[in-house]
């Protein structure tokens, strides 16, 4: 659990985690428009997908940091951390943690980021072998991580060719990493809450519990 806490503190900082408030619902997308000359109408010239414009180096660094929470063989695999936490508390708090378990499992499953809320792909009639197939942002994010950032898996690279724009890919990666970071955030909070209430069947060192806000975040030094 100490390694999980250290990794959580490390990953829950920077432009991706800070891009959206914890209580925000979804990402704010905005059409860019410009006037049509000689008329009182406007035309759509672009779409802002609402995620920060981070470069590949930032994406790669965050994906590498986050991988320990969604890769099944890692000792900070988030569903396993939640399972260990639930096994380490009494029945009453274990029941309270059922919601956290569902929250995490809706975002990480079988070593993948899951839970699509946006789709992209080739429409029927487009050129290419995958015309008519749509990919969720969870699939797009995993394909980008394993087809471009960390590895060059052929199937993942091929699916990425179906995605409409680089902006769509970037939105998928940022949004799914942020979903994962939210799950890490709440898992850290519940672990420290249980420790503060002396509900764990093991002890966390005092030094990892002090100097934190009510959700487990490390307070800045003064």
Describe the fold and architecture.
- There is one protein chain.
- The protein has helices at residues 2-11, 56-70, 78-87, 91-96, 98-105, 137-149, 154-160, 166-196, 206-209; strands at residues 30-35, 42-48, 108-109, 112-113, 119-121, 134-136.
- The protein is mostly helical.
- It has one domain.
- Strand 3 (108-109) and strand 4 (112-113) form a beta hairpin.
- The longest helix is centred in the C-terminal third of the chain and has 31 residues, at 166-196.
- 30% of the residues are buried.
In the predicted model, the low-confidence regions spanning at least 5 consecutive residues are: none
How much strand?
Answer: 5-15%
Number of domains: 1
SSE class = mainly alpha
Order of helices and strands: HEEHHHHEEEEHHHH
The strand line-up of the biggest sheet is 1-2
Helix content: 40-55%
Largest sheet, in brief, is: 2 strands, antiparallel
- Number of beta-strand segments: 6
Q: What is the count of DSSP helices, taking H or I runs of 4+ residues?
A: 9
Computed Rg: 20 Å
How would you concisely characterize the structure shown here?
With 222 residues, the protein is mostly helical. It is built from 9 helices and 6 strands; from the N terminus they run H-E-E-H-H-H-H-E-E-E-E-H-H-H-H. A hairpin with a 2-residue loop joins strand 3 (108-109) and strand 4 (112-113).
Question: What characteristics describe this protein?
Answer:
single chain, 222 residues, mainly alpha, two-stranded antiparallel sheet, two-stranded antiparallel ribbon, 6 strands, 47% helix, elongated
């Amino acid at each position: 659990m100490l390694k999980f806490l250290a990794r959580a503190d490390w990953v829950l900082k920077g432009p991706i985690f800070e891009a959206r408030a914890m209580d925000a619902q979804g990402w704010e997308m905005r059409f860019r428009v410009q006037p049509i000359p000689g008329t009182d109408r406007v035309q759509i010239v672009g779409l802002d997908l609402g995620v920060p414009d981070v470069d590949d180096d930032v994406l790669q660094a965050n994906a590498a940091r986050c991988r320990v929470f969604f890769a099944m063989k890692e000792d900070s695999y988030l569903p396993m951390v939640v399972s260990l936490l639930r096994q380490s508390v009494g029945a009453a708090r274990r029941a309270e943690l059922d919601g956290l378990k569902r929250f995490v499992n809706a975002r990480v499953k079988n070593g993948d980021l899951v839970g699509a809320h946006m789709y992209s792909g080739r429409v029927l009639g487009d050129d290419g072998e995958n015309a008519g197939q749509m990919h969720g942002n969870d699939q797009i994010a995993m394909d980008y991580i394993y087809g471009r950032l960390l590895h060059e898996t052929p199937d993942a690279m091929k699916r990425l060719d179906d995605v409409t724009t680089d902006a769509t890919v970037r939105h998928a990666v940022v949004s799914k990493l942020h979903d994962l970071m939210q799950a890490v955030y709440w898992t850290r909070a519940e672990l420290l809450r249980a420790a503060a209430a002396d509900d764990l069947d093991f002890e966390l060192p005092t030094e990892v519990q002090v100097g934190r806000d009510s959700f487990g975040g490390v307070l800045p030094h003064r």
